[in-house]
Amino acid sequence: MKRIVTGIKPTGDIHIGNYAGAIKPALNFMKDNQLEPFYFIANMHALNSVKDTDLLKKQTLEVAATWIALGLDPQKATFFRQSDIPELFELNWILANLTSKGLMNRAHAYKAMVDQNNRADIDMDTGVNMGLFNYPILMSADILMFNADVVPVGKDQVQHIEIARDLAEQFNHTFGETFKLPNYYIEKEVAVLPGLDGRKMSKSYQNTIPLFCKPKRLQKLIKQIKTDSSLPSERKDPTSSPLFTMYQAFATADETLEMKRRFELGIGWGEVKESLYTVMNRELEKPRVKYEELIAQPAEIEKLLAVGAEKARSYSAKKLKEIKEKVGLL
Ligand code: TYM
């Protein structure tokens, strides 16, 4: 059986980029009974930016409720909270000792933060902590611990999966065959879902559409999506339009083809925005209601996570024992 592993950080509102790039593909994988999904809330990864006890708890609950509201079946998937799996942090340390500092210096998220700190116009240390520097190693532990074959992610995470492969190879070479080499899966059309301003949708750019915002707000945000100033009658290029990219993340293949044709005929932006709202709301309407119900029952979610943690640990405890034996720690 092939293993699918992915995680979402509880660092703020889940947005449609997270959904289209990672959650939706992950849930599609769940339909295949030949696959074994391991989906989790990466709360330890969130620590490098969230330093507020109640907020971290609240956001963790929100990510859990999001997964379930969208259709994750906890009977089928092993669904857990990262911090409930202590074996991950032992593996993190073992892998850290096989990781060259140079490799981490080249990691995108760390480099971006260093660049930001070095900008003369920002008089503030935005906080490069060791959690951020070590981020790819912990992420490798998440992936390798569960012998992932495939990791569904957005394009921004590809480098991290490549690092996990490097570390797996390094470990296997040093201590003998232990880890599978994971592959990433990216949904081509939405690998980088754009945000309201046309840049990648990202919490740090404040250009997101929260997945479960109320319909009125959704409509309002869609109206704010940047468009070029071409006239309604002019031919439009769908490949360069954030609206089109968002549309195809929610529309059927036929609807997408039809929209492409309408772009070429010169559809008005207002009409595209209306159609985008229709397909997005169609898909999110029911999960939104379910999400509101779930968020009001934290104890139920806790129960699910406790079962998930037990299931995950039945794998991770065995795997860690194998790893520690190979390294000479037992
Ligand atoms: P996070 O929570 O930042 O992002 C969750 C997922 O959403 C994807 N994503 C996007 N995809 C398309 N377009 C966008 N605009 C967009 N923005 C975000 C991200 O690529 C990601 O797949 N490091 C992970 C969390 C993690 C993880 C793991 C993932 C921790 N351990 C192990 C896989 C396997 C992250 O970025 O989370």
3D architecture notes:
Its EC number is 6.1.1.2. The protein has about 325 residues and is mostly helical. The chain contains 13 helices and five strands. The protein has helices at about 15-30, 45, 55-70, 85-95, 100-105, 110-120, 130-145, 160-175, 215-225, 240-250, 255-265, 270-295, 300-325, and strands spanning about 1-10, 35-40, 80, 150, 185. The strands form two sheets. Strands 1-2-3 form a three-stranded parallel beta sheet. The longest helix has 30 residues, at about 300-325. The two termini are about 30 Å apart. The mean pLDDT is about 95. It binds tryptophanyl-5'AMP (TYM). Tryptophanyl-5'AMP binds near residues 9, 20, 42, 143 and 156.
Brief summary:
With 330 residues, this protein is mainly alpha-helical. The protein has 13 helices and five strands. Helix 3 crosses helix 12.
